Amino acid sequence: MRLAFLLYKYFPYGGMQRDFRRFVEEVQVRGHTVRVYFIRWQGEPLAGVDARQVPVRALSNNRRNARYLDWVQADLARDPVDGVVGFNKMPGLDVYYAADSCYLDKALQERGWLYRLTPRFRHFAAYERAVFAADGHTEILLISETEKAKFLRHYHTPQHRLHMLPPGIAPDRRAGLDAPARRAAKRAELGLAEGEHMLLFVGSGFIKKGLARAIRALASLREQGLPARLFVVGQDKEAGFRRQVASLGMTGQVHFLGGRDDVPDLLLAADVLVHPALDEAAGIVLLEALVAGLPVVVTDVCGYAHHIGAAGAGRVLGAPFAQPALETALKEVLAPPENQRCRAAALDYAGREDLYSMHRTGAELIETLLQRKRGNASG
Fold first, then answer.
1. Of 8, 77, 213, 259, which residue has the fewest beta carbons closer than 10 angstroms?
2. In sequence order, which residues have a C-beta less than 8 Å from that of residue 159 and are 6 or more positions away?
């Protein structure tokens, strides 16, 4: 089959974007050809892909998105494909991969009524409704039971269009026999002293993923006499967070590393992953930490947080969020006996649960669902 994959922008360090790449590669392995429509692309191109950059600009995201969709639909009308797979919510998709949380739920819970009068709200709510509406036709690949419940509550999407995928951790994230040596080498490279705690924060989207909370927690730990530093990995605006760090007198204790290709080694080097997100549909880094044997402290809003609880591999912070609870949880998990227990529990869980087959399962579903649609159309 000829497949079109749609997303607005690609960069190599986003969780959704990494899933996008692996889905493309998986359907290619299954013999299908892939065309990709995008506005902006950062990083290495995908091999064997018909890459079509959409030449649109606008002063607002909603206008840009609308122009993108108009351009793509016109191009597809001239050069049709057998199926359209979207990684952002928009009308006209055959299949949507639900990496993002429910927009309508967030707008109703976190914004006032004036926001819901704006063109931005009308645009994003309409694009989400086009995917999830009860009378729609888009098949939906889900990765979070929490978000599934929100979509059902707001849109009453028929269950037969909702397909839950297992997680999809890349094999290179698993801790191997060389893990102790890799841990020691990376800690030496980072200049960590013996007994100095390494807190790791990974994620592009610093506000949403709770970096300000993590920085405040580090300050509290250091005030209590714990030797600790925070390493921040991700591609996002840093200026406001650097000001926060400076105001707390921790310029030398918080390190902004940017987007990185050595995340597997950083996960091995760290003593805890801190992920106090305000909103997170899934949180693939939580499972990457699990398979690396790294304890995790995470808020329960994250779609994959339940795996941390089921594994007993750290702490899951309940709502409403309380900063002292984060600080207490980090202190507990950093204590050597508890840290070792969490590490062992994480590796045990990673060895007995399916945390790896998302992209193969999803590619099979895309193939099956599109073949069914073609059969129904021809019948």
1. 77
2. none
**Which of 102, 76, 80, 78 is CA-nearest to residue 89?**
102
* Domain around 331: 171-352
| DSSP state at residue 92 | T
Contact 163, 94 (CB under 8 A): no
Q: What would the two tokens of residue 252 be?
A: 């030398």
pTM over 0.85: yes
Q: Is 47 in the same domain as 147?
A: yes
Q: Are 135 and 233 within one domain?
A: no
pLDDT at 378: 62
Q: Read off the tokens for 183.
A: 């841990």
pLDDT per position as a tens digit, 228-253: 999 999 989 999 999 999 999 999 99
CA distance 285 to 282: 9
**Residue 286 is which amino acid?**
L
Same domain, 222 and 296: yes
Report in angstroms the alpha-carbon separations of 192 from 185, 278, 342: 10, 29, 21
Q: Please state, in angstroms and rounded to a whole number, the distance separating the CA atoms of residues 284 and 14.
A: 10
Q: How far apart are CA 354 and CA 143, in angstroms?
A: 13
Which of 12, 294, 278, 197 is closest to 286 using CA atoms? Answer: 294
Q: Over the stretch 364-379, which tens digit does the pLDDT of each residue have?
A: 999 999 999 877 776 5
Instruction: Walk across the sheet containing 197-202 and list its strands.
Output: 254-258, 228-233, 197-202, 272-275, 296-299, 314-317
Cα(227)–Cα(318) distance, rounded to whole angstroms? 27
The residues, any chain, with a CB within 8 Å of residue 23's CB and separated by 6 or more, are 5, 85, 97, 359, 362, 363, 366
Report the domain count for the chain. Answer: 2
Q: How far apart are CA 85 and CA 74, in angstroms?
A: 16
Query: Residue 379: its pLDDT value, please?
Result: 58
Residue type, 307: H
**172, 264 Cβ separation under 8 angstroms:** yes
Tens digit of each residue's pLDDT (9 = 90 or more) over 37-95: 999 999 999 999 999 999 999 999 999 999 999 999 999 999 999 999 999 999 999 99
324 shares its domain with 182: yes
Question: CA 95, 47, 372: angle at the middle one, nearest 5?
Answer: 25
Q: Residue 270: how many CA atoms within 13 Å on its side-chain side?
A: 29
DSSP structure class, residue 44: P
